[in-house]
Amino acid sequence: MPSVEELPDGPRRLFVQELFFHVREAGRPTPRDLAEDIRVDDDLSALVSRETIRKILRGQTVPSRWEKVDTVFTVLCRRSGIGKDEQRFSKETIHRAGGITFEQALRQLWDEALEGHSDPELALGMPDRRDRFFRRPEDLA
What is the mean pLDDT of residues 40-53? Predict the structure, then answer.
């Protein structure tokens, strides 16, 4: 994860932090590993190079096409065993809206990174270790 000096606080950093949650859960694969997974899988929606993956994870670029983000996200989810449509509960989102999927969260943060602003009313909470994301509402008790 880039330092705050390399990637200042803001919507782009939040997008990269969300991706890094999945990188950690996937066992920290390298951009080369991810690019190879993408290259050999004809079912993925976009071809994404190692260099593009590196730039995304450094916060140097935010792809303008969701297909590129989704391809990287899909490979990370496969490596981690997290389903893209699994609920990503945090205390904030469960009480605000009843939950959001991992894919919906990433797409929201991607949109905000592209637009350059975040809506505080839609704040998701910071990604961290998996145990900070509750899978079911009853886990909050």
Answer: 94
